[in-house]
Amino acid sequence: MKKTDVEAFYARLAAADPAPETELEWVNPYTLLVAVALSAQATDVGVNKATRLLFQQVTTPQAMLDLGEEGLKRHIRTIGLFNTKARNVIAAARILVDQHGGEVPRDRAALEALPGVGRKTANVVMNVAFGAETIAVDTHIFRVSNRTRLAPGKTPLAVELGLEKVTPKRYRAHAHHWLILHGRYICKARRPECWRCPVDDLCPYTPKTPAPISAQPISS
Fold this sequence. Notes:
By secondary structure, the chain is mainly α.
């Protein structure tokens, strides 16, 4: 995608949603870390449903340790892989208490050293909780970046590095959310809604998906 098209691409997404936010519910950096870790292979809606009561009771690593693994499982059993995730959340809470004074670290290396926390989770926490200009490449961002040719790549890391290279400085803080929301609600995997896409003329994807009959204007 040409530099001028990249600028127009982000400008249009920004105009449609000037202040995008994560759809995960969180109280503080720790609960965000937990929510993002739980969201792997799960929907934000499902995670929010499972953590709503949990985060009324648990907002710190020590409180999570006090709840215990079995107690955590009772809250998150509706989420996929909940046994493994519960074990990782408890192990991460122990490290946060013992090595970080109960605080969530701001740097990627320390975050990725936590059980169940990979590069994507670390990037989300750094961006949402601490304002870092990181881009967490999930399945939606990977698809949008390749389909639009904004930052094509064969791996999530390649796409992430490509996005960091082409995204103008003024758009980097919100780029993650604009791209994920665009992929979640418009540039969908099976049937992208090209007919209502604000950047369809900048995208080489073919064939363009036509508007459904119900969305087409009635001719007089």
